[in-house]
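Table S4 entry, Minor capsid protein.
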Amino acid sequence: MRVPPKRFFPHAMIYRKKNGMGPRGEPILEEDLVIDHVRFDDTVKFEPKDIDGKIQTPNALISMVKKYTEALPEFSVADQVEIFGKQYTITKIVPLIADSPEPFGYELEVV
């Protein structure tokens, strides 16, 4: 499987795994983990109305492949990501799978 060149992954992000909730409802986060060589694609926030209320679509997509990053953590929904000084929350994790059952990378949908 061919992956795009390293220059297509020019960004770095700070990943903070959620470890639980504090007494006031604030998330308790683990130490910062810097992940280099990711791609950040910002999108327009679009909230269509549905019968049951609002459907929130992701307003950014972060892509990474194991070939260019160091060991990747086990991502979870509701974990925190910081990129360009802005905080995001992971809403969906999409493993990138090709020839083997082991993913060669991930796409994170964040809001």
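The mean pLDDT is 87.
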